[in-house]
Please model this.
Amino acid sequence: MKVTGLAIVPPPAAADLPKVTPELLASVLARYSRSNDGLAKILEKVDIANPDESIDRILKFVDYGHASIGGLTGGLAIALDDVSMWLAYKIFELAQMADGQESSTRYITMAATNLPAPAELGIPDDLAPRWSALMAKAFAAYHAEYTRLDQLALAQPNLVRLPKDAKPAVVTRLRKNYALDRARYFIPLATRTNLGLVQSSRMWAATVKHLDSLGLPEASLAAKLIRDELLKQSPRLMRHSFAEKSFQAQAQQELAASLALGLARLSTKPLADEVWVKVDRDTPPWLGESQPVAEALKHRANRYGYQGKATRRMRVSFAWNNMAIAELRDLNRHRTGHRYTPLIQAGFYLPPEIAHASHQALLDEQAALTRELMKRGSAAYVYSLLLGAQTPFEHSTHADKFIYEAELRTGMGAHYRYAEHLSAALREFSRQVPEAKDWVVEGTAEPE
Model:
């Protein structure tokens, strides 16, 4: 694992602007909020050559707590190389205010050589050989199915949803994606990936504190390395980023709940699709909503258009019983609201083009190892999961954000399984809010 902080410097066009470090920016804006002086007057008292002295003087004067100004540092960028897909998922779950990207399964190396050592993940020593052998078999299944599906798409091009008059390079790429997107369910969640995130010092401190409280070796190492990088840019505000009792207590309780539910529901059979949507349109009696839903939606040219307050005030919770981790990795990155999953294996999804029976021995072996790790109370059970593992997933937000997600995940180029999940949720939403149906654009996800 390697963690790198990126220091953002102004472009040439901004050469004449005042220069501040992240913490100096936060302290200057804090002072600005409690002063009749303009910004220029405050900056006159700042010595950019000695920012620490200026920061300490301002913070002492304005008596701000560290957390209250941590959001004023601007975006601090961090890149994490060679972390597991589980850790990447967890960081996106925790960093709900971050902007970020993660490597796609279409573009990174998929092989047993791209796995961390078992000890790095907290796999018990006596189970390490068994885990390594299972991971190798999972990658073998992935490569075998990818090769088969790629050859099938070559022999039967009608299987691939191609745009009209597609150029040869596009045809080749979409054919490859057809095979990659269907074989990916055998990829281990422990596989290394890369991710980059940008968020304020305040959000980074909370994220790192949370990681440091999980009790998994990989998470603790990531917390230390991220903290070390951010201390270079925001030393005062990152001091409050160590494991803390309340975070540890909740992490332990969530692990216990996941272990109990996981053992009760562990299965390799495919779960039939179920979706749950709850819409809350209540408003205070003294501040009702008068805007028709159609007026909130019909003026948009596309999903990026601004929605009216009728949908912005409407609360929506939606959940699936069977979200494969392959899809969860992306849907978990929608930043608004709250997302939750116990991250268990209540079933195992494979696309129609791949027969469960052909891989039942592998799935049985994988489930047996997961069961053993769960029985031992090991948080490292997550590293025995493959991307086909199906887990419940819940997201609570507002209707405007839900509509954006539904239009995005069923739109042009969306993964076919995203489209199935979001179409099901959208149908239930439309049943409860029928006046929205004519103004929400459900796509067909063609081509992938």
About this structure: The longest strand covers residues 315-324. The mean pLDDT is 91. The chain is about 45% helix and 15% strand. Residues 306 and 448 are 27 Å apart (CA to CA).
